[in-house]
Design a protein that fits this description.
The protein is mainly beta and about 110 residues long. It is about 0% helix and about 50% strand. It contains no helices and eleven strands. The strands form two sheets. Strands 2, 4, 5, 6, 9, 10 and 11 form a seven-stranded mixed beta sheet that branches. Strands 1-3-8-7 form a four-stranded antiparallel beta sheet, with no helix packed on it. The protein is globular, with a radius of gyration of 13 Å.
Length: about 110
Amino acid sequence: QVQLVESGGGLVQTGGSLRLSCAASARAFRDYTIRWHRQAPEKQREWVAAVTPAGATTYNDSVKGRFAISRDSARNTVYLPMNSLKPDDTAIYYCQEAAYWGQGTQVTVSS
């Protein structure tokens, strides 16, 4: 069974930075694309960014240039540094591998 554990969320002011982490159990971590998603209050969950096993990255237009997903296969961890944060980035952030999801980490950006 795959376990994904997110961390790094918190409260930050507009323009600030945070770095989220997603630690995965070892099962086939290297073989899967890992995605970050987020869900703001009363909104649908949306995809944020993805990193393939080869390290190729893609981003939602709303975060392009501000977020930078990366993976460390030796540590079974995916990172999401987030810069120039805006109140619209406030959400619970989840990482996902195939059918598995983490429990989420709250990011709150104050104006």
